[in-house]
Design a protein that fits this description.
The complex is a heterodimer of chains A (about 475) and B (about 80). Chain A has helices spanning about 1-20, 30, 35-50, 55-65, 70-80, 90-105, 110-125, 130-145, 155-165, 185-195, 210-215, 215-225, 230-235, 255-260, 265-270, 295-305, 335-340, 355-365, 365-380, 390-400, 420-425, 430-440, 450-455, 475; strands at about 205, 230, 235-240, 245-250, 275-280, 285-290, 310, 315-325, 325-335, 350-355. With about 475 residues, chain A is of the alpha+beta class. Chain A has a four-stranded antiparallel β-sheet. A four-stranded antiparallel β-sheet of chain A has the order 3-4-6-5. In chain A, strand 5 and strand 6 (about 285-290) form a beta hairpin. The N and C termini of chain A lie far apart (about 65 Å). Chain B contains two helices and four strands. A four-stranded mixed β-sheet of chain B has the order 1-3-4-2.
């Protein structure tokens, strides 16, 4: 959307200037700790600090706000958050828009419709006089298309997704989107989304790059090297010398150059292993043990093979591709949203993953809602199944309604229903009934399943309204 | 849920819609308009990265302006609740 990119750029600039202001060193450690920990830390600090009384007062404020940052910081942030910027419109369009809003008063129309009307009216000036008429007719038509009150939209949604779902391929091993990266698709993927699994079976990321990086192959490669996980085994030969109880590591110059790592970096990461001594000798790394032991040597040898020298945990493989209107884009097998967004050169505002839980963790519940819609819709569309987005939006809304990502099914939405009979009607009937009787639960018969069980009209559709006949007195008798 | 200081602003991510804490007056109008108690609204945790960023406290209501696929722009609300973890 052009609108967003404009505002994003502005904000970026704002951020740059702001960054210097907000980065006060004393706040960062407190920010991420939960409340209880903060209070503990506070106590610790108050006992410790005889240094600065000024700081103390700031911290007290913090406690009041209960939040992990100072009052000033938040108020500063509030200033930074501006309403999403509207695209600059011509004066004419703006006038018509305000006219329409005047006519609408407290009623509302979809923005798309309003935009459409404005375009038409600007094209044909004669229509301007009939604006009131147009709006009232549009409103009538718009309201006619509303879903009826008390309509069972959940069931309609379930059927609308479920019926085309029967056409889906049960097992697909397609290489979709990007060649060489295998992505779960079709029914398995849809189930995965709806189940809100913590880790998808084939995690994947689309990593977009910033302007300077996306046009140059070398810079894109640099970024990719920082992301892709590199083990010591990939860049060097590891030889164990059993007679002298030493290990020799010979870096492979070609791959080292390709991966952009140096021998000093290798040494740094090798030194993290305990109880060994490593030094560089003639472009090789020689490792000796603190206490000579045959078994230990073999152990160290094993751990050296899997030693991470570079990259981000979880990113197994990387593919760089040049996309037509974008430049270089990195696709990765494996996902670690949190870390990848921090890498220099990665565009943190467009990079996404198919790991829904990770999106919820890093970007919040609303972002998770968006990614569920996006993933589910793309999965269905990819199979040629045209499901209306509204149904998927409903599913996504239900899944994120309590602030966490819940699965559809026994462990999530259905298991949390308040009604006993409704839960019993779904799955594991006996357990629910037993537990409920032990606790003495009450069922208010509010939902569908309960009312069917007891044989009452369901509180939906025509069952939701009661009709009372209005008798006229004249004809009555 | 780690929400350490990042070199970027999560609010600008293309997946994150616009969030705002609504004022007391707006809150009353909203509840009156829909004739509901606050807890009938969808929830957002106070440990949510976005709530932490804008400093929302439990009990407050966030206004969310989503980029809708069907209506271009859709306004939604979430009640901030304390997370039990």
């Amino acid at each position: 959307m052009p609108k967003k990119s404009v505002s994003a750029k502005d904000k970026k600039e704002e951020k740059k200037t702001k960054k210097q202001v907000t980065e006060k060193p004393d706040e960062s450690p407190i920010k991420k700790t939960p409340k209880s920990k903060i209070e503990k830390e506070e106590k610790k600090k108050s006992s410790e600090t005889s240094k600065k009384t000024v700081k103390k007062s700031v911290k007290k404020k913090e406690k009041k706000v209960k939040k992990k940052s100072t009052v000033e910081e938040i108020s500063e942030r509030k200033k930074e958050i501006v309403l999403p910027k509207k695209i600059e419109e011509s004066k004419e369009r703006r006038e018509i828009r305000s006219d329409i809003n005047k006519i609408l008063k407290d009623k509302s129309l979809s923005l798309y419709i309003i935009d459409d009307i404005i375009t038409r009216v600007t094209e044909d000036k004669k229509l301007k006089t009939k604006l009131k008429d147009i709006i009232s007719k549009t409103l009538a038509e718009y309201e006619k298309n509303f879903i009826d009150p008390a309509e069972a939209c959940g069931i309609i949604g379930a059927q609308s997704i479920g019926e085309p779902g029967t056409q889906m391929t049960m097992r697909t091993f397609h290489y979709a989107g990007v060649a060489e990266i295998n992505v779960t698709l079709g029914l398995p993927r849809l189930i995965e989304i709806v189940d809100a699994r913590s880790i998808p079976s084939t995690p994947m990321m689309n990593i977009y790059l910033l302007d300077e990086y996306k046009l140059s192959a070398d810079l894109a490669k640099d970024v990719a090297n920082q992301i892709e996980i590199t083990n010591l085994n990939d860049v060097a030969d590891i030889e164990a010398d059993l007679t002298n109880l030493t290990i020799l590591i010979k870096p492979d110059t070609k791959t080292m150059k390709r991966k952009g790592s140096k021998i000093d970096d290798l040494l740094e990461s090798i030194k993290k292993i305990k109880k060994i001594d490593a030094k560089i000798e003639k472009k090789k790394i020689k490792i000796t043990l603190d206490e000579p032991s045959y078994k230990k040597l073999l152990n160290v040898n094993e751990s050296l093979k899997d030693l991470k020298v570079k990259g981000i945990d979880g990113i197994k493989r990387i593919i760089i591709r040049k996309e037509p209107e974008e430049g270089y884009v990195i696709y990765s097998e494996g996902s670690n949203l949190d870390k990848v967004l921090e890498i220099e050169g990665v565009d943190p505002y467009r990079t996404t993953t198919n790991d829904i839980q990770a999106v919820g963790r890093v970007l919040g519940i609303e972002a998770a809602r968006n990614i569920i819609i996006q993933e589910a819709y793309n999965t269905l569309m990819e199979q040629g199944l045209n499901v209306d987005k509204r149904h998927i939006m409903l599913v996504s809304d239900v899944m994120t309604s309590n602030g966490t990502i819940k699965a559809i099914g026994r462990h999530g939405v259905s298991g949390e229903k308040s009604s006993v009979l409704s839960r019993a009607a779904f799955e594991i009937t006996v357990n629910h009934l037993l537990d409920a009787s032990r606790r003495g639960e009450l069922d208010t018969l509010g939902g569908v399943a309960e009312n069917i069980i007891v044989g009452q009209p369901v509180n939906l559709g025509t069952g939701a309204v009661e009709l009372v006949m209005k008798r006229s007195k004249k004809k009555g008798k | 849920m780690a929400t350490e200081k990042k070199h970027f602003n999560i609010m600008n991510h293309k997946l994150v819609p616009f969030h705002m804490i609504i004022s007391e007056k707006e809150r009353e109008e909203l509840l009156k308009k829909y004739n509901i108690e606050p807890n009938r609204l969808p929830k957002i945790l106070d440990t949510d990265p976005v709530s932490i960023y804008i400093g929302a406290k439990p009990g407050q209501i966030l206004k969310i302006i989503r980029e809708s696929h069907t209506a271009k722009e859709a306004v939604s609300y979430r009640l901030v609740v304390e997370s039990n973890k």
